[in-house]
Each structure stands twice: as structure tokens, then as C-alpha cells.
Design brief:
The longest helix has 32 residues. The chain has a 6-stranded parallel β-sheet with strand order 3-2-1-4-5-6, sandwiched between helices. The protein has 424 residues and is α/β, with parallel strands linked by helices. The protein has 13 helices and 13 strands. Helix 4 crosses helix 5 and helix 7 crosses helix 9.
């Protein structure tokens, strides 16, 4: 690193903000985002995603000089650009690269000779060099690997996880030339406790990230399939898993809903690219179909239990606990709890959704679902479904919420067996 590194992180969401805050401890760092409301909130010292605490964020601003902006002129003097924007899929589950193209245009407007741009967004192998960098070249008028350079260091942020935070994880790095790979690796090593793994190429780094999430998707799909089989046989899946776990080389995993911005989305990027090369990824296809069906399956299991107890499903009062895609996190992106709700809503509109972490306005805009942040007093329900295991739900007295007869269903498999009627 022959010149002083000044970093700009483009995209200040669940991935970009924690990374930018961390970089600010060692380098002059600017965060860039198109959302003025997001930038204003961050500069006021509050992160609505809860990935960075107000105290830590305010310290970064006051002590480290970290700042956020929507203005291109304020990031022109940076020389190390990091792109951390979402990589969603469209309604047909095809990769949507528009956020990456847009971020690459932003980089192209400000990048100078000798600068480096590093991508962190999860993509299929080849996106950085085939899709993103040509945009930077076109907008900037500069030539890749002559005038400017690139790297790829896939994000490994786990929303809501306060143990595997960005500074604690080991990150994969890569560069467009061996020399640039060394620089990118050195920059990340300055702020990471557990260091890096330097991949041999950008494509290898891209591939490593996408199989991390795809592997989890396939493994969870297997457990979900087992849950369906054992439920049909009248066998408790959780008890089967506990018994099997007594073998030293059994990999203990649980069935569950697979939503969010990573595991339920990223495999589609590899699925599409594999078919371009003439490979039909049957296992990944099957895993995605199975996991996408689990919300509807849970709802139908609840309906079945209600029918067995003689509870009229039509116009029944149902309490759904949690709407986020995972516990202790406000992230509602691609939540499969929506599928539980929509399936039940075919029979009743008397569904109360409780989630103290989710933003009610965002839920309404995204899914058309009204939520509450506190239990209505004195109300009893025909069925209660624990869909997300927020810490705030640990003190709930489930039997006191249910009519007699009533149903308690545990999606997460954490409630005492004596108080539930069914679980995955």
C-alpha cells in the first residue's frame, strides 16, 4: 500500500454499515447510500437494523470521523471502494443485478486512476468481471486492470448474530492481479481479528460464497423433508434428531423456515449460471422448492390439528408470533412467515401477528399485513403459532393464551413438549 487508503462503502444496509464502521477504526471511511432517510438516521447515531449499536455508531462518528452521505462529490477523493448492495431475485427467481449495475455506475462516476473497487455482494462466479466492471469502464472511461483494479471479498454477515460479528469472522479476499490481491488482503487484515483466506482468483472467491449458503439450503431441505416424513408417521422429529446426534459424526441440524436475503435467494444465482453451462442442478432445485413450501405446510399442519380437536377453522382467532425471517432481528426480507399467514387467511381474517422487532410500516408496505408490538390484553386464541423465537417471547405463558380446546404449534422446536400440540 504505497498511498494512504481512503475507503468508501457503497450500500449501508445489514452488510455495508457494520463493515464501514469497522473500517473506520483503521482508515478514513465514508459510507454512501442513495436513501437520504437512511443516511440522516445514521448520522443522528441510530441504526434501524440493530447491527451496529447506537453507542458504537456514535463513537465511530465522533471518535473516528466516520460519516455517511448521498453526495457523489463527497466520495470522489476515496481510492478504495467497497460495494455492499443487495443481490435479490425477481418474481421468477431470476437474478436481479440492477442494484449491482447501479452501484457500479456510481463507482464509475467517481473512480480515478490507480483506485480499487471491491465487491462484497453474493453473486454467481463471473458477475464481478463480466457484469460489474464493464459498467465501471463504460461510465469512467478507464480501463480495467490498467487504470483501475478490482477485488472480491464476499460478505459473511449473519443478521442478529452478536457473536459472529464482522470483525470476528474470517473473510475470503481476492484481487484482479496478484499485487492487487495482496493489497485487498492487507486492507481487510487491518481490521479483522481472525484474518483472511486469500483466494486464487475473483471467480473462486465468488464461488466460495455462493456455495456457503447453497449448502445450508440443501441441508435444511433434507431436515424439512425428514420432518414431513416423520410427522406423517406420527414420530417426533426433534426426538429423532436428538437420538441421531448421539453418534459422533452426525451433523445436527433442525427443520425450519428458510427466508431472508441469503439462503433463500443465493442458490438461484448458481442455479441459473449452472444451466448456462449445460448442468441441471437437480438437488438445488429440489431444495429450493421444498424450503419454499414450508410456510404453507406449517399452516396446513395447524389446520389439521385444529380439525382433529373439533375447532372450527373458519373465522378462528389465531395468534402468530413473529414476522421477521429469523429470531432477534428486525429483518423482514423474504420472510416465510408470510406464507403461514396467507394460507391461514384463506379461512380466517382474525389473525393477530405479534412482533416487537419488526417495523409495522415496512411489514404493511411489503406484505399488506398489520402487526402489533404487544399482546392484546385478555384475548384468547384458538391457535397460537410460535414462528420466530425472539427473546421477547421467552416469558410468554402459552397455555394461558389458548382456549380449551386450542392448539399450540412450535415452528422453532424450542417449547416444552408438554404444552404443544405439534412442531416441525
Amino acid at each position: 500500500m504505497e498511498k494512504q487508503i481512503k475507503i468508501c462503502v457503497i450500500g449501508l444496509g445489514y452488510v455495508g454499515l457494520p463493515l464501514a464502521r469497522l473500517f473506520s477504526t483503521k482508515f478514513e471511511t465514508v459510507g454512501f447510500d442513495k436513501n437520504q432517510r437512511r443516511v440522516d438516521a445514521l448520522m443522528a447515531g441510530h441504526d434501524s437494523t440493530r447491527e451496529v449499536s447506537d453507542k458504537v455508531l456514535q463513537e465511530a462518528i465522533l471518535k473516528n470521523g466516520f460519516r455517511c452521505t448521498t453526495q457523489l462529490d463527497e466520495i470522489r477523493d476515496c481510492n478504495f471502494y467497497v460495494v455492499a448492495v443487495p443481490t435479490p431475485v425477481d418474481n421468477d427467481n431470476h437474478p436481479d443485478l440492477k442494484p449491482l449495475w447501479g452501484a457500479s455506475e456510481t463507482v464509475g462516476k467517481v473512480i480515478s486512476k490507480g483506485d480499487i473497487v471491491v465487491y462484497e455482494s453474493t453473486v454467481y462466479p463471473g458477475v464481478t468481471e463480466e457484469e460489474c466492471l464493464p459498467v465501471v469502464e463504460r461510465v469512467s472511461g478507464l480501463k480495467f486492470n490498467v487504470d483501475f483494479f478490482a477485488g472480491y471479498s464476499p460478505e459473511r454477515i449473519n443478521p442478529g448474530d452478536k457473536q459472529h460479528t464482522v470483525e470476528q469472522i474470517k473473510k475470503v479476499t481476492s484481487g484482479s492481479t496478484p499485487e492487487i490481491a495482496d493489497i485487498v488482503d492487507a486492507v481487510y487484515n487491518e481490521v479483522l481479528v481472525n484474518g483472511t483466506h486469500k483466494a486464487s482468483s475473483i471467480r473462486v472467491a465468488e464461488a466460495s460464497k455462493i456455495i456457503e449458503n447453497t449448502q445450508r439450503d440443501v441441508n435444511i431441505a433434507f431436515m424439512n423433508e425428514l420432518a414431513k416424513i416423520f410427522n406423517a408417521m406420527g414420530i417426533d422429529t426433534q426426538e429423532v434428531i436428538e437420538a441421531a446426534s448421539s453418534k459422533w459424526n452426525f451433523i445436527k441440524m433442525k427443520p425450519g423456515l428458510v427466508g431472508g436475503h441469503c439462503i433463500s435467494v443465493d442458490p438461484y444465482y448458481l442455479i441459473q449460471k449452472a444451466q448456462v453451462y449445460g448442468v441441471l442442478p437437480r438437488i438445488m432445485f429440489s431444495a429450493r422448492r421444498l424450503n419454499d413450501s414450508m410456510g404453507e405446510y406449517v399452516a396446513n399442519q395447524v389446520i389439521k390439528l385444529m380439525n382433529k380437536k373439533g375447532i372450527l377453522v373458519k373465522d378462528a382467532n389465531i395468534l402468530l408470533l413473529g414476522i421477521t425471517f429469523k429470531e432477534n432481528c428486525p429483518d423482514i426480507r423474504n420472510t416465510k412467515v408470510e406464507d403461514i399467514y396467507m394460507t391461514l387467511a384463506e379461512y380466517t381474517r382474525n389473525i393477530t401477528v405479534l412482533d416487537p422487532l419488526a417495523d409495522a410500516g415496512e411489514v404493511k408496505r411489503a406484505y399488506g399485513i398489520e402487526i402489533v408490538d404487544a399482546l392484546p390484553e385478555g384475548r384468547l386464541y384458538d391457535a397460537v403459532i410460535l414462528a420466530v423465537s425472539h427473546k421477547e417471547f421467552e416469558s410468554i405463558d402459552f397455555p394461558s393464551l389458548v382456549r380449551t380446546p386450542g392448539v399450540v404449534y412450535d415452528v422453532k422446536g424450542i417449547l416444552p413438549k408438554a404444552i404443544i400440540d405439534g412442531r416441525l
